[in-house]
Design a protein that fits this description.
Elements lengths: L1 H28 L4 H7 L4 H8 L7 E3 L6 H9 L9 E3 L8 H10 L9 E3 L8 H8 L7 E3 L8 H10 L5 E3 L8 H10 L5 E3 L8 H10 L5 E3 L8 H4 L10 E3 L8 H7 L7 E3 L8 H10 L5 E3 L11 H8 L5 E4 L10 H7 L30 H4 L6 E3 L3
Helix pairs in contact: 4-5, 5-6, 6-7, 7-8, 8-9, 11-12, 12-13
Length: 390
Amino acid sequence: MEEKQVEEAGGEEVAWSRETLPKVLKIVSTRLPQRDLISLLLVSPWLNATLISYPSLWLLLELREMNNAGNRLVDALSLARYQHVKQINLEFSQDIEDKYLELVKSKCHDSLQNLEVLNLNGCQKISDKGIEAITSSCPNMKEFSIYWNVRATDIGITHLVKNCKHVVDLNLSGCKNLSDKSLQLVAENYPELQLLNLTRCVKLTDSGLQQILHGCPCLHSLNLYALSSFTDEAYKKISLLSHLQFLDLCGAQNLSDEGVSCIARCKSLLSLNLTWCVRVTDLGVIAIAQGCTSLEFLSLFGIVGVTDKCLEPLSLTCSNTLTTLDVNGCIGIKKRSRDELLQMFPKLRITLRNCIDSQSTDMRGWNRGRVSADFRYFMQLDYTLIFAES
């Protein structure tokens, strides 16, 4: 009897090891950071073989902020488990230079045929030469991000559009040496582009922006943060983007009420950042209220030309959708009690800073920090109403 029980227990243990444990491991491993997965490979040959047998675990190559990332990249892409990688993140990695991207091209070309997402943000040692090398191996790339790269020029963008025909998400933020030529290339080659970030691309002019607005009608996210050189003639053309949902115009010093009124034709707009658009007045905000009735986020931070007059139209048309309204620094808008604000905008989740009547509520424990105007960042936070002290 005892022998039979021992035999049954042993059989159950074998069944657990061969059937149940791999299933559990497959579920758990998908929730682990890649660095932990790499460590698990070293635990035992069985665990190594089991994890490697799950192709979905190796579609991402995560090298963010790692040292010696160039050698790590080449070594990883030489391994069989990364033969079908779809996403590579090298954001702010150390030691990423053109020579490593050229090595990838010569040694690991086949491993990048399915790559869809490449993040080179903060990799400042990469030049047009590196962009040519890596993009030539990624014919199916859809998302390319090269934030804060001052070595990239129009030549690099020429290689990008030649080698990667399916890009729909392009982040060129901080690439200060790109000119209107780059925007012409993007407009001519990416008619299906959906997201474009041109933050602080200071050499751009109305001509380049207008080519984008005519050539990329599918855009639903456009970031023009900290670009003060554009004029109303270009801003008016934003009305061509019928699918636009997110628009950042922070620091658009030449934007007037006339330009804002044209932007108000973008009926799908959900997020609009007009921070420091100093020429805008109540007229422009009222036009937005009347045209963009699905608006969820609106920043008027630092605009002294807006007053209480624009709040009533916003309340009438956007009260059921508006979750964030930043009027910090708008000296023409008076303080209000918490109840008054909720009556006007019942969907707001309130975090107030120097905004309400100090006698009406307790300010202790509320987060008073101002948050970023990037809507995708806002999506990760509780929505707020930020009013300025009048």
